[in-house]
User: Which sequence fits this backbone?
């Protein structure tokens, strides 16, 4: 019986967990090709998790284990629709899994959202995590006060990074270009704006207590 060939588009956590599940199947020989538009894998584990949260990023050890399987192949710098088309993938593989995730921000649709100094979290987080699409971004962090709209995990990560001691950030894997901007500590105060009075977040209650007022 010939191997069952599967293509996975996207190399974030969902893509790697899908690959691991396929490679563990009993009674069937599965080969997995993973296609990623960036040169490096791991998706938001690499470019979305705050640099001062190394324990969360340690999940990448499981991805490395999957990548060592001889039936697994990774292809970076491949943009589906440009370098290869979905119809070609459907013809070449027995199955195609799209695990591309959410790559864009959610507009607030409020006046002034497009003014200078207004930055989406996906851009700022990508910038301080060395995402290649945001390395040339140049946020102005010299005005003393920053406002973060929202109080979810990413919002609090952004707020914490903005007011963190640069000396502490040096021991993390934060991007060098971001550390150079954050080093003068231009942001002295962060205001967090939430839509509801009550703190509603999918995280431990003490996290809300540390930030909400």
Assistant:
């Amino acid at each position: 019986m010939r191997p069952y060939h599967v293509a996975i588009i996207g190399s974030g956590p969902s893509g790697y967990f899908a690959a691991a599940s396929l490679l563990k199947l009993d009674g069937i020989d599965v080969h997995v090709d993973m296609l990623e538009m960036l040169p490096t894998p791991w998706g938001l584990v690499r470019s979305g998790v705050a640099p001062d949260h190394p324990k969360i990023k340690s999940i990448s050890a499981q991805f490395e284990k999957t990548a060592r399987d001889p039936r697994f192949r990774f292809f970076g710098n491949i943009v589906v629709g440009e370098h290869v088309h979905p119809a070609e993938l459907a013809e070449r593989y027995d199955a195609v899994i799209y695990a591309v995730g959410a790559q864009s921000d959610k507009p607030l649709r409020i006046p002034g959202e497009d003014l200078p100094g207004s930055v989406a979290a996906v851009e700022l987080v990508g910038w301080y995590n060395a995402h290649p699409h945001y390395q040339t971004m140049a946020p102005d962090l010299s005005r003393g006060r920053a406002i973060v709209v929202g109080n979810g995990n990413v919002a609090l990560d952004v707020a914490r990074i903005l007011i963190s001691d640069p000396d502490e950030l040096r021991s993390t894997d934060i991007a060098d270009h971001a550390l150079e901007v954050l080093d003068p500590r231009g942001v002295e105060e962060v205001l967090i704006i939430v839509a509801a009075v009550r703190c509603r977040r999918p995280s431990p209650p003490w996290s809300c207590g540390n930030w909400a007022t």
Q: What stands out?
A: The domain at 121-211 is CATH 3.50.50.60 (FAD/NAD(P)-binding domain). The beta strands are 4-9, 30-35, 72-75, 95-98, 144-149, 187-193. The radius of gyration is 20 Å. The chain has two domains: 4-98, 121-211.
